[in-house]
Amino acid sequence: MTGGSDAILDLLPMVFARPNDALARAEAVLDADPSPLHASVAHQVIGMWQRDFGDLRIALRHLRRARDLAARSGSADREADVLATLGVALVHAGRTRQGLAAFERGVTRGTGHTRARVLFRRGYVWWVLGHHREALDDLRRATPVLRQADDVIWTARALTLRATVHLALGAVERADADFAAAERLWDTTGQEHDKADVVESRALAAFRSGDIPAALRLFDEAAERYAKLGTPIFVFYIRRCEVLMAAGLAPEALAEADTAIAELDRIGGQSTRKAELLLAAARAARLAGDPHTAIARAALAVRLFAGQRRSWWETHARLVSIEARVAAGRSSGRLVAEAAELAEQLAGFGSPAAPEASLLAGRIALSLGWTADAERHLAVAARSRGSGPPLARMTGWAAQALRAQAAGSSRGVLEACRRGLDVLDDHRMTLGASELRARATAQGAELAALAQRASLVSGGPRRLLVWSERWRATVLSSPPTRPPADPALLSSLTAFREIAARAEAARVEGRPVPPLEREQRRLEREVRSRTLHIRGEVPGGGHRFDPGRLLERLEDGRLVEIAVLDGRVQVLLCGDGRVRRFEAGLLADAVAEAEHVQAGLRRLAHPGAEGRLKVLEASGRRLEELLLGAAVSHLGSGPVVVVPPGSLHRVPWALLPSLRERVLSVSPSASSWLRAVETEPPPDGGHVLVRGPGLATGGAEVPELVDRYGRTTVLEGDDARVPRVLDSLDGAMLAHIAAHGTFRADSPLFSSLRMADGPLIVHDFERLQRSPYRIILSSCDTARLASVGADEVLGLVTALLSLGTAGIVASSVPVNDATVVALMLALHKGLSSGLSLAEALRDARAALPSDAVHQATGWAFAAFGAA
């Protein structure tokens, strides 16, 4: 290894090909009493490894030693190369002035090819500092020299860096061209770390062009490559956090950023990266609804960036700080001035965030009543509505809507909101995963609220209904993209099911489960990751809501859509050929009362709590006042459909006095109900009865139902395995599943029904070609849902409705197993005589004994949809 200069210099590119091998070989060189030149290279290699993957303090010691040894070796180019490496490390340590001075000396000492490499690294430092034009200037000077020298590795690095700088300036097409050229060069080398880096960079480019599924897929591919190398990847975490936030996964981004910060502190890593991670954490905390954490993280980031003389980054951190303070309820003229100043600075930097700062300044000014100032700032922000990525255009349309609101133009508000939400709809439709579609709606919450207020003021109840529907349960407006026949995904689902079953068996037997739970969580992450990679259909596939069609379909029934404006419940009563509006109570009071009701139902699932029945009935009366108000006296005598917002999905509507004896169904939206009404039953669908393991009653209703229907498939015992169950459910007319249900608030699409071979989860149902026309879920918690996004709910029921199921009966709380049997038998008696699910459930409740446990069981179940 020490026999020649060429051989020792091979260690330098090895740091980004096989980092740990390079470290070991460099240490071996130092053990062999090397010459100053060879020792300089070895110390430089160790310094580079520590700089990027370890302790920055150790890195600086080695690089200063490498610099001194290079000077002793008599090679000016060797000294220039080390000075460039040292300059990068000093800047990452926050010693910006010293780092730039090292580069000045390196540029002076280096010649030709070596000088080009020094310029490339200074270009990298300019990028780190946020001086993008200076970075491009150094790269412009370096790249032709590197190409002329046929230096494949350094030319590829220069192209990769130039693409990254173009991305920071919003020039996505230029970035794509450079990334493609760099990747072609990397494919001819063995630089595995550099190859992983370009995959990571392509992920960022995909994100900038608006393709979040591709970005997530490429980030996962890069993570696998980095994992094989066994090196920390802090820039990767920063970039992936940005994409997670855009995908509506801000809590995950915050957790990832905080974990990376802790690891960086543990190893004594780069101060520059810590500042960037703090900025990512601040953004994530603000989006996750935690403004105080955002303020604290942003303040730390601002101090670090200022000390590092990184004005581009510091300006972005100050923007997040102001956004967080406004989210915490602060508003002042000083904040307007600060936001306006930041907008000018960001525009000067060429940052895509400039319109956000102008929008923020305008929004604060409006809250203070400064309409002239607001108009000035909002007009600047509104310019972004015509071009750029979807979220930038939405910023522009939000600004335009606020301008119209300040000018008193309801028509202008509605037009701007429509255009902005159309942009978001197109963006959401590129997302194949229902989870991402639901979470993405949070980005349009302000536009939806502005439109609803404008409708309330000037448009009448029908227009308010249209806008309520425009933004309600949009994830159900079109079916999710079916997962591809991906062998890896199917393998992960099977492995997850097996591990989950083993963990459940271990719990029952009292054996330790932590290793199994860790493996289950790993497999869950793998399944979820693969589903998030699914790209959606072509934009524009959703249907527009038609109030006239709704009123026609209701016939003698009523549909009650509950909207919430500024914390107050607005009841939109549809029926008898018109839409009427009634104002009811405060949403916060209704949510609190609903929680009390849920607790009461849980207690009544067990004998001995009969005294709670009167308390529960009283809560039902209070809920009726808060949620329906004066609309109660206009419900008529026909069927009622209730369309609640996501925050009220746990209300047991059958408990409300005016609804107890009615044909009652619940739907996530009026559009969803219309689609269910118009869904044709399968002409040759059969009936499927499933009994899962471990039920207290053993699913006693199932044997009683076998002879009730003609063509019936019964799956129980070892036959009730997920593949067999899915095969039987596909295209069925009616499915009755008696199985333990588990709701996962932390990950609603892993809510499950327990089968013989493990859990049947929502991701499994999404593989059906046609979901059963009707489904009855007789176990606990199967109707529980999680609120996400603006006004979306995720869970088993909404997943089945979006897949084409027209009607579902399920429970939102734990129920008494024995009383469920009686309710289910009565329910099927009505169905077999030709009743709908809602009609049969009403009659089944009436047929139950009048004791508290039976009554609570009847109220716990609801009919969803329209079949």
UniProtKB/TrEMBL annotation:
Residues 618-865 form the CHAT domain. It comes from the Bacteria. It comes from Streptomyces montanus. SMART domains: TPR. InterPro entries: CHAT_dom, TPR-like_helical_dom_sf, TPR_rpt. Gene3D superfamilies: Tetratricopeptide repeat domain. This is CHAT domain-containing protein.
